[in-house]
Each structure stands twice: as structure tokens, then as C-alpha cells.
Design goal:
- There is one protein chain.
- With 242 residues, the chain is an alpha/beta fold.
- It is 42% helix and 11% strand.
- The protein has a six-stranded mixed β-sheet.
- It starts with a helix and ends in a 47-residue tail after the last helix.
- 32% of the residues are buried.
């Protein structure tokens, strides 16, 4: 390893240590803060190296963040398997909000994946399909940033119950900000109604949690909102938030 490579490695390590120190104090200080204050802290701390991700189930997070940081980068994972309504929601978001939507595509098209790994990988090995079409592309897309904003909430599922408003994303070595982690479904509904937030029309057709079309079904009244994702496959997360 050359001297330049050693210095670069040490600089990255120092940066990671500095970021981890920020996370611990911010998580404590901001635990009871309003969502907008959490976003304001993130925007002030990370500037243009802050982005957010959106599945385009709705534009709640986009509305929140763009009011604090206009022009923010919004990463959308264009998996090749989305409902037409989800693509339409993405297009509407680009027109309505002051954001920069960046479409992130997997390294293989659906046809290429089918040829190389066989058709309907999502039904045979959903974990691998999610990794190839969501996790790996997002990991690549997040590399230029120091922090990303996510819309996950504690009440969505048991696997998310321990979510902090500011966390260290060890897998990606960056900061993860969850400004609505403490929100309930009532909080979400009230904000969207009060602010006229764009909503994916599938939300009104029995799809409270919207993923790729082959792996998402309608949810019956009283069911867990995420029970329609990978139903019958023993899977509850795509891997992005694990």
C-alpha cells in the first residue's frame, strides 16, 4: 500500500469515527424533537451530502424534507417490477415538489436477470431478488452521501420497533436519519390530509405497504399493514433496513 493510500484510508477511518460520535449525541438530543427539527439538524450537518429514499408509496417524507431542504436528492429504486401506479406517483412527485429525483436501476434488467438466473427469481429466492434489485443498487447510490433520510416508523413492524431517530448505518458506514420514527398511523394520516400530500392510488385500494408488484398483495381490514409484502414467504424486510 502506498503512502497516499494509507493516508486516504486513515482519513476515511477518522471520518467514520467522527460520524459515529455525532450519531450517539444526536440520537439522545433529538429523540423527542419534532420531525422537522430532526430534518433541519440533518440538513445543517450534512448539507448536499444528505439524501432521502422513497418507495413512492406516498410523498410524506418528500414533503417534509423538501420544506426544509429544497432541491434535496430523492433516490428511487426503479426495480423493473413496480406497479404502474408507483411509477405514476414518482412522475407526479417530480412535477410537484422541489426535489431532484434520481432513478436507481439494478445492474441487470429484468430480462437479463431472467436469462442468467431463471425466471421468477422473486418467487424462488426473494432474498436474492431483493438484494440484486434493491439492496445492491441502493448501496451503490448512497456512496457519495454522508447521511440518508428514511421514512420507517417504529409502529410498522416488530423488526422496526427499536428504530432511533438518528442511527449509525454500520453496513454502509454512514448516518441514517429517521425523522418520523415515533409517528403513528394517525400522525401520518393527519399530516397528509393537512398538507395535501401526494399519495400512491394503491393506498386507497387495499395496499397500505407497496413494494414490487409480484411480491405485494392487498391487505384485509385488521391485518398488519405490512402483511401484504412477501405473503407466505416467511419474509418481512427487503434487506435495506436490516
Amino acid at each position: 500500500m502506498t503512502l497516499l493510500e494509507i493516508e486516504s484510508t486513515l482519513e476515511r477511518q477518522r471520518g467514520v469515527l467522527d460520524l459515529r460520535g455525532i450519531v450517539d449525541s444526536a440520537a439522545r438530543f433529538l429523540e423527542d424533537a419534532p420531525a422537522r427539527e430532526i430534518i433541519r439538524w440533518a440538513a445543517a450537518t450534512f448539507g448536499d451530502r444528505l439524501c432521502l429514499t422513497s418507495s413512492m408509496s406516498d410523498a410524506l417524507l418528500i414533503d417534509l424534507v423538501s420544506r426544509v431542504k429544497p432541491g434535496v436528492d430523492v433516490l428511487f429504486l426503479d426495480t423493473g417490477y413496480h406497479f404502474a401506479e408507483t411509477i405514476g406517483t414518482r412522475d407526479a412527485v417530480q412535477q410537484v415538489y422541489d426535489v431532484n429525483v434520481i432513478n436507481i436501476k439494478p445492474s441487470r434488467t429484468v430480462d437479463e436477470q431472467d436469462r442468467e438466473l431463471g425466471p421468477r427469481l422473486h418467487g424462488r429466492n426473494p432474498d436474492l431478488c431483493c438484494f440484486l434489485r434493491k439492496v445492491e443498487p441502493l448501496n451503490r447510490a448512497l456512496e457519495p452521501y454522508l447521511a440518508w433520510v428514511s421514512g420507517i416508523r417504529r409502529d410498522e413492524s416488530p423488526t422496526r420497533a427499536g428504530t432511533k431517530v438518528v442511527e449509525w448505518d454500520a453496513k454502509r458506514q454512514m448516518v441514517k436519519v429517521n425523522p418520523i420514527a415515533r409517528w403513528t398511523q394517525d400522525d401520518v394520516d393527519n399530516y397528509m390530509a393537512d398538507n395535501g400530500v401526494i399519495v400512491n392510488p394503491l393506498q386507497y385500494d387495499g395496499y397500505p405497504s407497496i413494494g414490487c408488484a409480484p411480491c405485494t398483495r392487498r391487505v384485509a381490514d385488521g391485518e398488519d399493514p405490512r402483511s401484504g409484502r412477501w405473503a407466505g414467504m416467511g419474509k418481512t424486510e427487503c434487506g435495506i433496513h436490516l
